[in-house]
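Example S7 (structure tokens).
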């Protein structure tokens, strides 16, 4: 496999539209990296530049130590799995998987061996004689992945490969692709708008917005230590709750003050310089109203009015109005909340974040 390095990569479309802005990333050999972000953030464009399907405006891309800016896609030794599968409808599964090898004039015996090996890995050996129209969405996606595997490329590229599948099949395919990465020991770059896919699959995650990298980190670091409000709000389901207010300092110490609420802040938080300034307070749903929050060493209380509850089976989402904002809490499924009632919710202050007006994290 191979290391992939992107240095100062930019993509500017006609009319001066900047799709990717100064993208810098080093992907280690055998690493699984996920590019994630909202629609239009530049993640697919970045992947297509690595593949050679999109021309680079500036910067360099190197695969296995070789700069490939001017190298044709077929000569980059990469394999790409697309969102729409891109299978030939008139060909059998076997011929779809073997097509690229036949174009390279590979011996028939080796083609047979590679296709059967990939089919066994993906559990589609019994489908080799079928045509795409006879397959389910999940089976078609396996065939598309199998077509990439048989080439034994240096780098695998995945462009939102699961977005056309139903929820149950997406979960199954997530596990299969992660298992495949472990088995092949391959370098993989995976694009998705689904942060759950990113969190469950990536060794590292690249969060993008408006063509720029916002943060590169492992899943837990992204979740626990977001560098700005965008990352904090994008990663996590349900997303982080935000309340706008200001930092106040008095003889009792520092507090976050907002509409109808005052939350005492830990004395060791270095926020004295922010006194009097507007900030945003962030708390994740599981850190408010839950049993874990109740047991926290520095839990504070937040007065709230219950709006709606959503039983999810193993847990319940409780939507409340508090501190001039609409918040969601993730609580134990057996804890009862009634619409319209006023409650005192424990909040684990140590798990919360404070963001400056510009969005950067202060704590």
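Recovered sequence:
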């Amino acid at each position: 496999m191979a290391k992939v390095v992107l240095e100062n990569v930019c993509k500017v479309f006609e009319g001066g539209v900047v799709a990717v802005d100064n993208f810098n990333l080093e992907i280690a050999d055998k690493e699984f990296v996920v590019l994630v972000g909202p629609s239009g953030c530049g993640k697919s464009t970045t992947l297509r530049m690595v593949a050679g399907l999109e021309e680079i405006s500036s910067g360099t891309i190197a695969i296995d130590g070789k700069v490939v800016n001017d190298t044709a896609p077929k000569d980059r030794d990469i394999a790409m799995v697309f969102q729409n599968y891109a299978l030939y409808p008139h060909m059998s599964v076997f011929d779809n998987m073997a097509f690229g090898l036949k174009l390279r004039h590979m011996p028939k015996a080796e083609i047979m061996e590679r296709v059967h090996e990939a089919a066994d890995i993906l559990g589609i050996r019994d489908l080799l004689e079928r045509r795409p129209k006879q397959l389910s969405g999940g089976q078609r996606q396996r065939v598309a992945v199998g077509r990439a595997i048989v080439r034994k490329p240096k780098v695998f590229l995945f462009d939102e490969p699961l977005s056309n599948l139903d929820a149950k099949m997406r979960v199954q395919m997530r596990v299969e692709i992660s298992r495949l990465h472990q088995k092949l020991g391959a370098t993989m770059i995976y694009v998705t708008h689904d942060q759950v896919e990113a969190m469950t699959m990536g060794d590292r995650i690249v969060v993008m917005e408006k063509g720029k990298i916002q943060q590169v980190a492992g899943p837990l670091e992204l979740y626990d230590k977001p560098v700005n409000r965008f990352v904090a709000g994008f990663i996590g389901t349900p997303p982080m709750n935000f309340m706008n207010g200001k930092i106040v300092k008095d003889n009792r110490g520092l507090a976050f003050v907002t509409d109808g609420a005052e939350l005492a802040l830990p004395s060791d938080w270095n926020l004295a310089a922010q006194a009097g300034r507007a900030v945003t307070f962030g708390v994740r749903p599981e850190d408010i109203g839950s049993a874990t929050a109740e047991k926290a060493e520095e839990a504070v209380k937040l007065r709230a009015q219950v709006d709606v509850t959503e039983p999810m089976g193993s847990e319940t989402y409780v939507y409340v109005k508090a501190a001039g904002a609409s918040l969601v809490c993730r609580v134990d499924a057996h804890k009862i909340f009634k619409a319209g009632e006023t409650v005192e919710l424990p909040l684990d202050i140590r798990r919360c974040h404070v963001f400056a007006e510009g969005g950067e994290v202060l704590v």
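Notes on this example. The first strand starts at residue 4 and ends at 13.
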